[in-house]
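User: I'm curious whether this sequence folds into something compact or stays loose and floppy. Could you predict its structure so I can see for myself?
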Amino acid sequence: MISDNNLDAWGYVYDKYAPAMFDIISNLTEDKIIAEDIFKEAFLQLKEKQILSKITYSLYPYLQRYTHNFTKRQLELSSVSPAKTILNII
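Assistant: Here's the prediction. I'll summarize afterward.
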């Protein structure tokens, strides 16, 4: 349903995983405004680039990895050092 851009499916993904994604971003940035901007961009890219339709394993670990790496890239592009690395699984 995600690959068909089903709004209910995206709503489910958002409701279930957005808090965890935002926690990862917040821990890496320690700035709420930057965290909100990065979160919006990360979630939009998931949808626009249909990233979730391409995964072949569990969604939650994938989203953790994606969010962590996306946030680090965004911070690097902004010349901001991540506050800390919080995921040892990456």
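Summary: The mean pLDDT is 81. DSSP finds three helices and no strands in the chain.
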